[in-house]
Amino acid sequence: MSPSTRLARSGQGWRRLGRLALDTSRAGWAATHAALPVVEPLGGDRFALYLSLRDRDGRARIGRSVLTMSATPRLDALDPNPVLDLGPLGAFDDSGVTTSCLVTSGRDRFLYYTGWSRGVTVPFYLTASVAISQDEGPFERWSLAPLLERSAVDPFLTASPFVLVGHGRWRMWYVSATEWRQIESGPRHYYHIRYAESDDGLHWRREGQVSMDYETPDEHAFARPWVMHDADLYRMWFALRGDRYRIALAESHDGVSWTRRDALGLTAGPEEWESEMVEYPCVFDWDSRRFMLYNGNDYGRSGVGLAVLEDS
After folding, report:
1. Measuring CA to CA, which of 13, 112, 129, 300 is 20 to 30 A from 150?
2. Pairing of strands 46-54, 60-68
């Protein structure tokens, strides 16, 4: 039975395997958090694991570990140097870079990410971009300008691009804000998930196609879409926030029109590190089983957890 078939038949589905310990002692820049996991197969039971870790000023950089899947999954120590550092002063990503997804095309690897800059009237600005590794070399920014700049289609922010390549086209699901709203505690962002296409992964056609929209008045943030194209359906896991984040699921026959199946996601768990919220799913298959990496309390401050999709 395929992982996708198990999901369709098994109700809630996910069994928590626990939090993964990460040694950051060799990386003096990594003070807190281990958010927004992204995996890259290395062969066998090993995966490169890219994470967003913050310095003492709260600015995120992208770091790398190695995840070994076994009877007891484990992480290697974080590499000493960031995979992608802060952008230059005044750039769209001078206050943080956070992981989104990684795509391989030929000998090039595209690391899509979100750039952060500090705001005045609102707390921050987010903009989606990409860094490229050629012939297994280091990741370098495609441009000092962002990939998805603010526009008439996306006037407030873009973030968390997730990209799949197939049948001659590149497909992206990304976060776009619809407004900032002043509430008692300050400005609140409202953002959902939209869809775009490209011929080369760099120049994107954005037409305002909404993939995932607000369904209740308390929903105001859809974050970190992660899409799998299974034999029967496209499946998107994403973080959804009302008061606190949880992980939800949607399904689609074409990757454009989606049906939510929130009950097949993941909610806050019994352990203290994930007792308040869960978010930022990263879903992958290994050894004929489907796994999910995710974050817990405080947007990844409490670390990274692993869950497996169970048979009914």
Report:
1. 300
2. antiparallel
CA atoms of 269 and 49, how far apart (whole Å): 23
Distance CA 203, CA 116 (A): 21
Residues of the chain short of pLDDT 50, as ranges, are: 1, 5, 8-11
Q: What is the 3-state secondary structure (H, E, C) of the chain?
A: CCHHHHHHHCCCCEEEEEEECCCCCCCCCCCEEEEEEEEEEEECCEEEEEEEEECCCCCEEEEEEEEECCCCCEECCCCCCCCECCCCCCCCCCCEEEEEEEEEECCEEEEEEEEEEECCCCCEEEEEEEEEEECCCCCEECCCCCCECCCCCCCCCEEEEEEEEECCEEEEEEEEEEEEEEECCEEEEEEEEEEEEECCCCCEEEEEEEEECCCCCCCCEEEEEEEEECCCCEEEEEEEECCCEEEEEEEECCCCCCEECHHHCECCCCCHHHCCCCEEEEEEEECCEEEEEEECHHHHCCCEEEEEECCC
CA distances from 57 to 60, 115, 271, 298 (A): 9, 16, 28, 16
Can you tell me which residue has the tokens 């484990």? 74
pLDDT at 4: 53
pLDDT per position as a tens digit, 288-300: 999 999 999 999 9
CA 176 to chain centre: 14
pLDDT in tens, 246-287: 999 999 999 999 999 988 899 999 999 999 999 999 999 999
Residues pairing with 35 in the sheet: 52
